Design the sequence.
């Protein structure tokens, strides 16, 4: 058989049950294979989103995550296993490896990085859709600014406790995140750390968002939901608020003021679900071998090709090759910064 490189390959047997679903069909499947999506954050929600899209045959998936796998992730982060946790494998890498085991026909591009105003253009460029697997509003507002400015659809998804919430953002058509939440609802919302999280709430929200993604990518835009949908899987309470039109006066989609892209007042970030602080003040390449030698007399140190871990009671520092660090054992940014300066250097 002759291969025509201009046409995406269609693996009819693999996708046969999905092609039978007439709203997708062979043409929809061809479109999925030719589509490019980005999943920002590959924790619980990001794992399910990436897995569903990869199995459905979305041809190119860029997975961004700043974190590494830990034992406490395994209850809900379905792309990871115990070995990933033992080795502290960055989530983006572990996700790409796992996906390659069940769909080697698609391209997965792992990016071990924190999405910031400085790198958002290069990390999100060239995709047809952005999916939210993050755990914080700061990054969501950054995605929202980027998406509205560049007219890229994105899907907001969040889960905490037994509660799940999701909304499609179609720039120029529907409300954006800032239309619905002009200010971060941080004070009012609980986090995974205070309220815990049910894996079923995660699966629910990711399933809904992944289905909306399929509609968009196969070109069935009119069937996409135009509401902010919330669902509590424990109390069975459900609510929908219309998001069918942008809000007049919205800072982002009406006034086109992209303050999050401009990076105003971006602080160190305390991660969800852990007693830890991320430090990323300046980009610099770290030589793990050299750093290990330097740290060995000062505490326990271990590294692989992705991360270097250094234990100095009661703190644990995880260092990435670009100089970024996650410091566990404190939520005090001043302590974290001084530990970084003392052990990693400035
Ligand atoms: Zn808006």
Sequence:
């Amino acid at each position: 058989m002759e291969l025509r490189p201009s046409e995406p390959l269609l693996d009819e047997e693999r996708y046969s049950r999905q092609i039978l679903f007439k709203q997708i069909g062979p043409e929809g499947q061809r479109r999925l294979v030719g589509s490019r999506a980005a999943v920002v954050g590959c924790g619980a929600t990001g794992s399910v989103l990436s897995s569903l899209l990869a199995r459905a045959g979305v041809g190119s998936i860029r997975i961004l995550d700043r974190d590494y796998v830990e034992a406490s992730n395994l209850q809900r982060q379905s792309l990871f296993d115990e070995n990933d946790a033992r080795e502290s494998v960055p989530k983006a890498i572990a996700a790409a490896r796992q996906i390659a085991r069940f769909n080697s026909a698609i391209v997965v591009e792992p990016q071990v990085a924190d999405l910031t105003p400085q790198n958002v253009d290069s990390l999100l460029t060239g995709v047809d859709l952005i999916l939210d697997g993050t755990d914080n509003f700061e990054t969501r507002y950054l995605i929202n600014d980027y998406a509205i400015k560049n007219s890229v659809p994105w899907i907001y998804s969040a889960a905490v406790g037994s509660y799940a919430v999701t909304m499609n953002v179609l720039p120029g058509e529907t409300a954006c995140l800032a239309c619905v939440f002009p200010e971060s609802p941080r004070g009012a919302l609980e986090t995974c750390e205070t309220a815990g999280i049910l894996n079923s709430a995660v699966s629910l929200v990711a399933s809904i968002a992944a289905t909306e993604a399929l509609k968009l990518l196969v070109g069935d835009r009119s069937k996409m939901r135009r509401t902010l949908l919330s669902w509590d899987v424990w109390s069975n309470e459900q609510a929908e608020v219309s998001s069918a039109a942008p809000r007049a006066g919205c800072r982002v989609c009406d006034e086109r003021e992209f303050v999050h892209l401009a990076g105003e007042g971006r602080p160190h970030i305390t991660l969800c679900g852990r007693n830890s602080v991320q430090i990323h003040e300046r980009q610099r390449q770290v030589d793990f071998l050299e750093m290990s030698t330097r740290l060995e007399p000062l505490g326990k140190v271990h590294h692989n090709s992705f991360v270097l871990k250094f234990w100095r009671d009661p703190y644990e520092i995880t260092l990435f090759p670009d100089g970024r660090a996650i410091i566990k054992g404190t939520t005090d940014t001043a302590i974290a910064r001084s530990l970084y300066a003392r052990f990693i250097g400035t």
